Amino acid sequence: MKVILLQDIKSLGRKGETKEASYGYARNFLFPKGFAKPATGEALRELEKTKEAAAKRIEEETGRLRSLAAHLSKTTLVIKTKTGEKGRAFGALTAAKIRDALMHQEKINIEKKWIDLEESIKQTGEHLIKIKFPHGIEGTLRVVIEPEE
After folding, report:
1. Model-level pTM?
2. Full set of structural domains in the chain with CATH
3. What number of other Cβ atoms are within 10 A of residue 106's Cβ?
4. Distance CA 119, CA 8 (A)
């Protein structure tokens, strides 16, 4: 019996796939639990429309993220922090602080997990920060840390 999976099932397949399952397995387990539905003509057309809409949405999101990455590569973010001797900041500059400064200065809202910091920044000066967006898109952001006066 052909079924359309509504959730990922470890032994059978991933959400949205059409798979062959035994009649008893489908009727007694997959359908009652809401893990799958029968692969009728109407259900297959609906699945195809859903896949097309998802592909279009991903394409639009990818284009938006590419333009955001291009904009960020031209942006210089200036963050002022208290420093001690030798230009070392008292507090470390973390991904959350970079995100907040980007929101306040440039009105750009990105997720903290997209900012790829190997370790927090504690030294004043200019730093290049990698931004890893979803769908494999990467960008860089120039951050200048200046001492507070």
Report:
1. 0.68
2. 2-60 (3.40.5.10), 65-147 (3.10.430.100)
3. 15
4. 35
Residue 138 makes CB contacts below 8 A (sequence gap 6+) with: 69, 130, 131, 132
145 in Cβ contact with 127 (< 8 Å): yes
The sign of the torsion formed by the CA atoms of 108, 112, 115, 119 equals positive
For residues 78 and 144, the answer to whether their CB atoms sit within 8 Å is yes
47-to-3, 13, 52, 56, 88 alpha-carbon distances in Å:
12, 15, 9, 14, 56
Q: Could you read off the pLDDT of 44-93 as tens digits, one per residue?
A: 999 999 999 999 999 999 999 999 999 988 988 888 888 877 777 777 88
Phi and psi angles of residue 41, each rounded to the nearest 5 degrees, phi first: -60, -45
